[in-house]
Every structure is written in structure tokens, then in C-alpha cells.
């Protein structure tokens, strides 16, 4: 089972798999071409029976990074798909229609990091207020906290 | 309420069924729920952002404040995420202490839920009894950690306090004392015909629903989705103790009660095994790590409500670059979208509560007629509706519990 993930994704997606890093026997990090990410995610979720645990978005020096954490419950392993997006205009296809559990976290990453998820069924705000100003993403490194408090429109 | 038109019943944002303020909009036709909308974000505290400004020693204390009931779940996952960056190993004794604290917490959390579930159904006896037996567990926590809640036991590299040998007899005594009441709940409460009528085939969640929505913990296990982080991704001392993962087939509210009640017995057993080991294993409680190398780590813990997930990214300094937290309710709350639909409004109370989003908010529910905004019902009325249904059933069928307990 353990190799089904690494070998399977490699043989199936070939050049879309940019890097495989098996940090420990229980933690594997796979860097994926962003355009093929939904297919790889669907392969892990549907074909290999991995459970979608959550996704982490982060603003790093080299761009916006998203890690999709999949739990391989029968193999005692976490498989993490990593994509790196351009921070100027981060955009990726949504996996929410193929992996329903991802619906909320994509909404959350959209509002906190300003990542566009193309094809997401319901892109409303999840955590922030509905009148949160456009283009203000609290988890971006260049985000400045408002001194006025409230929802940012007070000032 | 007009029978043909669709009415929206808002539950929340402040409601006693919920650990955090959440907003459920029940779309009802007559008595039947046809759709459920969920809005969250009323209690967003920006903890992930805050964690980026704290050192690794401080982060476990910050995340301990996420939840007031399962307060050691988040630090448990947090310290493991930090240790996974290395990866770093911790002493054997610290592993057993962590496991012991985690399981003792599961007992008190499940008892709390059981009591509240009883209260929402109108069985205040169950509430009083469950909380009565929860009290010795909290006293035990006070004895061992100094606090009834927010124990502050976890630290990267080990635990902060040792468990003294002279306290172990009291620990064993309390654990033994828990078995009888839990068995009583299993045998008496669960065989009660009215309780069965109120919870069986109510709020059914299929196995496929659980897989689709990523349900976790007892919510998943009651629908025959056999996942448990303790067994599937062993950590602390869970690969060194014996325990069963409880699963049931039906996925209704009744099965969620059964899973939690039986899990308490397993937790008592795990705690006892840990106590036995604590008498022998003496290799210290702290590995005293001075620095966290660059890298990333994932920490997991099977909290009373399901898998807690923590991720941290380190650049070699003493503060995390990114800290991600996912509590089990984040995955479990959306399951209500499927579990509530098709049942009556009076059943929604217990269905929403059945996933165990812990409860500590003020009550403010309003039933508003769509269009006019006329106030029809508040939270008290909704709770009353649920309790009234049980009362009527009691009159009709009689209760085993009343005969035994009065």
C-alpha cells in the first residue's frame, strides 16, 4: 500500500509530479504541478481511498503554497500534496466538487489568503464578515492590521 | 406556521447546543426540515495568526485556549506537530502521561455530552447523573495537574508535570468507581423505550456521507466508518496499550450515544494500563529540547470529538512561520446538512447536538416567519418542544428509568 501512493502517482501523472519527499515513513510530501492538482487529489481520494484531512495555505517568500493533507488511514501515513502558486495572482482549480470535504477550507483560504479557486460551488465568506473589504487578506505577510479595529471599514 | 409555505428557523448564532457561536438556518415545511444552511465565523479569533507571533514554548498554551472542554486535545496535537518537525523523540514515561491525560479527558468530555444530550431530550435525570459521575474525574485532574480544566500538561519534548506515585491509588480508585455508572448508562438508559424512540433512526448519517464530508471521531464511527487516529496513526503510547475501536452500523443519534458510552469503558481500560506502566517506567518526563530545526511537522490527536490536526512550518527560529489548526468540528458540523434534513424540528435539537459541538454559549434562538420576520419561537421554546415530545411519549409508553431511579 505504501508504494501505491508514490509509485502510483508517479506512473500515472509523470511530469506533473515535481518532487517526492519521504520525510519519515509516516509523512510524505509530494510537490505537484498546480494545473494537475485536482486530478492527483481525486486519484488519492477516490482510487486509493485516502481521507481528505484538511488543506493549509501559506504565504512564503517563493509564493503562495497550498498543502493538501490526505490521511492514508490503513497505511499509517499522511500524504501531503504541495502546490506553489504565484503570489501576485494565486489561482487554482477547486477540488470541492470532487472532494466535498474540501468545500469549507477552500472558502477559508480564499478569504484569508486571496487564493482564487476556479469552479468552487459557493465562494461566500466563511469566517470573516460578509462586508469584509475586498483585497484584504489577513494571512498574507504584507497585511497590516487595522488600527481602527472592527471590520476594517471604520477608518 | 403555515403548512404549505417554507419557513426559516434560525438557530444561533448564540445557542446552548453549540460550543462556539454558529448559525444554523433550518428551512422547514410545516414540521419537516427540508434544508439546512450553516454559517460560522462568529468566534473567529485569529489563533493561527497569533501563533506566528509566539515561541514554540508558548504555542501549546495558546492552543489550549481553543476549547474549554477538551482542553488538552489541541496542545496534545500541537506538541506532536512541533516534535514532528525534527523529528524528535520523547521519553517513554512522558508518552504514558500524555496518553493518560488524553483518555481521562475523553471520559469527562463524553460524560458531559451524555448529560447534555439527556437534558435536550427532557431527561434531566440523565443530565444530573452524568455530571455527578463526571465530578470525580475533574477532581482527579485537579489533584494531578492543579486545574479541573486547562491542565497545561503538554510541552514540546515531554510533559510539564510528573504524576506522583502516591497519587496512583486515588487514580485507580476513581477509575474503578467510573465503571459502574457507565455500565448503568449502558444498561438502563440505552434500553429505555422512550429514549430509543427519540434517538433511533433520527439524524441518520450514512457511511458514504461520512466519507464525502470527512466526518471524524464518534460521528464517523457510529456510521460504521472505522477510523481512529489512535489506532491508524499511533502516537504517544497508543501503540503500547490495548484498546478496541468502537463502531456501530446505523449512524443515528442512538448509535452516537452507544459509541460514546462504550468508548468511556475503553478509556478507563487505557488509563489503567497507563497507571500500571507509570509504576515501572522511569526515564524522565522531558527530553529538554533547546531548538526546533527548519522543516515542517504534522501533529494528530484523537480528541473526544475526532481527529485534531496541527501543522507547523519552521524556519529554524523559535517561532513558527505558519501554524495551521483544524478541529474535528470543522469537518463534523457540515454533516448536519445531511443529518437534519427529512426529520422534524423537534428532532433537530438532538441531531445538531449529536455530533457534540461542545456547549457553552448563551441562548438566543428565534423562530421567525419568513417574509414577515414575526417572532414565533425562541431557544427556550425549541428546547421545550423537544422535551415536550419526550414527555408525551413517557405518558404513552412509560419509562424504565423512572421506575429504577425514583
Give an account of the 3D structure.
The complex is a heterodimer of chains A (155) and B (406). Chain A is an alpha/beta fold and 155 residues long. Chain A is built from three helices and seven strands, in the order H-E-E-H-E-E-E-E-H-E. Chain A has helices at 2-13, 37-47, 103-113; strands at residues 17-24, 27-32, 51-60, 63-72, 77-85, 91-93, 116-118. In chain A, the strands form two sheets. Chain A has a five-stranded mixed beta sheet with strand order 1-2-5-4-3. A two-stranded parallel ribbon of chain A has the order 6-7. Chain A is globular and about 45 Å long. Chain B has 16 helices and ten strands. In chain B, strands 1-2-3 form a three-stranded antiparallel beta sheet. A three-stranded antiparallel beta sheet of chain B has the order 6-7-8. In chain B, helix 4 (92-120) packs antiparallel against helix 5. The longest helix of chain B has 29 residues, at 92-120. The two termini of chain B are 39 Å apart. The model of chain B is unreliable at 358-373 (pLDDT under 50).
List keywords for this structure.
heterodimer, A: 155 residues, alpha/beta, five-stranded mixed beta sheet, 7 strands, 22% helix, globular, B: 406 residues, alpha+beta, three-stranded antiparallel beta sheet, 10 strands
Amino acid at each position: 500500500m505504501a508504494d501505491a501512493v508514490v509509485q502510483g502517482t508517479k506512473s500515472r501523472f509523470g511530469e506533473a509530479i515535481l518532487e517526492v519527499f519521504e520525510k519519515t515513513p509516516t509523512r510524505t510530501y509530494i510537490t505537484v504541478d498546480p494545473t494537475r492538482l485536482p486530478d492527483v487529489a481525486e486519484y488519492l481520494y477516490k482510487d486509493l481511498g485516502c481521507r481528505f484531512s484538511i488543506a493549509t495555505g501559506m504565504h512564503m517568500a517563493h509564493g503562495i503554497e497550498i498543502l493538501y493533507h490526505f490521511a492514508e488511514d490503513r497505511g499509517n501515513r499522511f500524504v501531503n500534496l504541495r502546490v506553489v502558486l504565484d503570489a501576485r495572482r494565486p489561482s487554482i482549480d477547486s477540488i470541492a466538487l470532487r472532494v466535498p470535504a474540501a468545500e469549507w477550507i477552500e472558502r477559508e483560504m480564499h478569504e484569508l489568503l486571496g487564493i482564487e479557486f476556479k469552479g468552487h460551488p459557493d465562494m461566500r465568506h466563511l469566517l470573516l464578515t460578509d462586508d469584509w473589504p475586498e483585497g484584504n487578506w489577513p494571512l498574507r505577510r504584507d497585511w497590516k492590521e487595522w488600527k481602527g479595529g472592527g471590520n476594517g471599514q471604520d477608518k | 406556521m403555515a403548512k404549505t409555505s417554507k419557513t426559516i428557523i434560525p438557530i444561533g448564532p448564540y445557542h446552548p447546543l453549540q460550543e462556539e457561536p454558529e448559525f444554523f438556518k433550518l428551512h422547514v415545511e410545516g414540521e419537516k426540515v427540508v434544508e439546512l444552511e450553516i454559517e460560522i465565523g462568529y468566534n473567529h479569533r485569529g489563533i493561527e495568526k497569533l501563533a506566528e507571533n509566539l515561541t514554540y514554548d508558548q504555542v501549546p498554551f495558546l492552543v489550549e485556549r481553543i476549547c474549554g472542554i477538551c482542553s488538552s486535545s489541541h496542545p496534545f496535537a500541537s506538541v506532536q506537530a512541533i516534535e514532528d518537525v525534527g523529528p524528535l523523540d520523547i521519553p517513554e514515561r512522558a508518552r504514558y502521561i500524555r496518553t493518560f491525560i488524553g483518555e481521562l479527558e475523553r471520559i469527562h468530555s463524553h460524560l458531559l455530552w451524555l448529560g447534555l444530550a439527556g437534558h435536550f431530550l427532557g431527561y434531566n435525570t440523565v443530565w444530573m447523573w452524568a455530571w455527578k459521575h463526571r465530578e470525580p474525574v475533574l477532581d482527579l485532574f485537579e489533584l494531578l495537574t492543579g486545574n479541573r480544566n486547562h491542565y497545561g500538561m503538554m510541552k514540546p519534548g515531554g510533559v510539564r508535570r510528573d504524576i506522583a506515585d502516591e497519587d496512583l491509588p486515588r487514580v485507580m480508585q476513581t477509575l474503578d468507581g467510573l465503571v459502574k455508572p457507565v455500565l448503568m448508562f449502558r444498561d438502563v438508559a440505552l434500553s429505555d423505550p422512550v429514549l430509543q424512540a427519540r434517538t433511533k433512526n433520527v439524524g441518520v448519517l450514512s457511511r458514504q456521507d461520512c466519507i464525502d464530508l470527512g466526518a471524524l471521531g464518534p460521528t464517523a464511527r457510529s456510521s460504521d466508518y472505522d477510523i481512529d487516529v489512535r489506532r491508524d496513526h499511533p502516537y504517544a503510547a497508543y501503540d503500547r496499550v490495548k484498546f478496541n475501536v468502537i463502531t456501530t452500523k446505523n449512524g443515528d443519534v442512538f448509535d452516537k450515544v452507544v459509541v460514546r458510552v462504550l468508548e468511556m469503558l475503553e478509556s478507563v481500560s487505557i488509563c489503567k494500563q497507563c497507571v500500571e506502566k507509570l509504576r515501572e517506567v522511569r526515564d524522565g518526563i522531558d527530553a529538554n529540547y533547546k531548538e526546533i530545526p527548519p522543516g515542517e511537522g504534522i501533529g494528530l490527536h484523537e480528541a473526544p470529538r475526532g481527529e485534531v490536526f496541527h501543522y507547523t512550518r519552521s524556519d529554524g527560529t523559535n517561532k513558527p512561520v505558519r501554524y495551521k489548526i483544524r478541529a474535528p468540528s470543522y469537518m463534523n458540523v457540515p454533516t448536519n446538512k445531511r443529518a437534519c434534513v427529512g426529520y422534524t424540528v423537534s428532532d433537530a435539537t438532538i441531531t445538531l447536538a449529536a455530533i457534540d459541538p461542545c456547549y457553552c454559549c448563551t441562548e438566543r434562538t428565534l423562530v421567525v416567519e419568513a417574509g414577515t420576520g414575526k417572532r414565533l419561537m425562541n431557544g427556550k421554546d425549541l428546547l421545550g418542544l423537544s422535551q415536550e415530545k419526550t414527555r408525551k411519549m413517557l405518558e404513552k409508553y412509560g419509562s424504565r428509568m423512572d421506575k429504577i431511579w425514583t
